[in-house]
Amino acid sequence: MASNARVESARCRARLNAQPGPRLLLAFWLVTMVPAALAQQITGRVIDADSGQPVVGARVHEQARPALDVVITDAQGQFALPVSAGATNVPVAAALPYSVDAPVNYETEVDLADEGDDIVISLRPIPDQENVDYQPIVGAPPEGCGSCHTEQYAQWQESNHSRAAVNVRVRDLYSGDGTGDGTGPEADGYVFTELHDAEDTGFCATCHSPNENPADPGGVKFNETSTAAGLEGVTCTSCHQLHVINDDIESIHLLGTSEFRFPLSFRGGNEVTHEHVWGPLDDVGFGQMRAAYAPFFKTSKMCAQCHEYENPETGAPGQDTYSEWLGSPAAAAGVQCQTCHMPEADAPGPIAAIGAAPQRPAEQRHDHSFPGVYSGVLGDPVELEVEIEPTGARVEIVTRVHNRVTGHDWPTGVDVRNAMLVVEVSLNGEALVQVAGDQVPGWANDAEPGVQPGDFGGLAGRGYAHVLEGRINGEGPVVSPVNFIDADALVSHSTIPPGQTDLGRFSFELPPTALPGDELAVRARVVYRRVWREIAVTKGWTEQDFDEPWERVVEDQTITRSLTEGDLDRIFFDRFGS
Fold this sequence. Notes:
The chain has helices spanning 2-17, 24-39, 150-157, 168-174, 192-195, 204-208, 228-231, 236-240, 301-307, 321-326, 329-332, 337-341, 373-377, 533-539, 565-576; strands spanning 41-48, 59-62, 71-72, 78-82, 90-95, 109-113, 118-123, 242-245, 258-260, 266-267, 270-271, 276-279, 290-293, 308-310, 317-320, 382-391, 394-403, 418-427, 430-431, 434-437, 461-470, 487-493, 501-509, 519-529, 551-562. It is of the alpha+beta class and 578 residues long.
């Protein structure tokens, strides 16, 4: 590059020397400034490593330096990358965004260059031939991804993803043997394998254990997961060996929405399919990884593959989290699922033990523990306001439950999630009778005879749930609520949309014996449950401790008011008139 600058300077001098004297000052400016301007960059070409043809549209920038602009290669594969004056050993990264429709896709590459260099970056094509016998590797060291990606692996171990394949609640519902040996209450009530045709799988392993048998995800039975990679649940390669998420969002993960890809590659005669990974960074140059840049990893569509689906036969919606996000204030502002559930690191990461890994800034390192609403994103996902006003012979209660989550409904997730507002009013400790307003739906109760503590159905309040109805295994009477795989239709959808407020109004009768100074007390609770109460009680889950409680009291407020003479006057006139 320096020699080119000298040639150009000589040409400038030759032209200017033939001109009249007044141009000498301009000549001096060109001779001194042009080489300096040309020197503060690295130029080059990006080519196909096999054919030598230019790679058009490749992204080129300095590795791990997001503040610098990305340059795009032209029709000849050429680029000019601005760098700091005097820069040496600059890691220059090149990547072509992966596309399932492209005739050729490439691994990312990083080469070192100095200021003023003219370089050639060769991108290695991803092999077309697939490794049909490949079994995804584990995440656990010493053989798995965690050997090098220690920080991400440690975070992942704290996540629900790491426990997906051994989720005892799912196992109790699937085969009745998750929290016990299959002879206790865990085997009572709904057990999928006992109520459905033997060839059915329940689709559980498709999302909960995708690495168990990726060649036939629909044929894997959740209670038969046995491989090391399968038992790790949603692990490293469960995401990073996906090469496409299509627009068939309502399908269930590997059964229609997403695909693994396992290129057949070799290094020193050894098969190294596990080195082929896809991800959101366009500048990975680690020697033991054959990384491809897949922009969809930065989008909410990445999460939709398991967090949006419907019954494949009836179309009944099983989970709508992605659709909820699409219509949310967060989506309108460009906030993706990963923004909240894979937040940026607090500080730059340590330099990896293997020297090829760069020290990335915090914004390029994201939390792989996937914090949720109750595990780090929002301690209080809802706000509760309660107003009390005696009006005539009644006590009027107005409630407002505000969903602070701006990216999806509350509650959201699988169809068994539910929540409720429970309102109770008393006068001097004696419960008052509700005479108007909404009541908590019956799904808030268990199936035991009588009313037990926690049976909120029929009390003043509101229900927030995604309620389905259908016939078990397509046979017998229509029941509700049911799991999505048995659902024919959506009965009600009363979850609170993101950023919105649910308004409740309730009336309770004041007794004629009420006196000035009597104390009104209103208790309002917002209760969240991970499953329907009937399931939890039948399976015996209410008596057991899990990684997350099956029930949470999210808000619990009690407000009081003493009756006044004016309140009693309104009561008198309401009952007897003037």
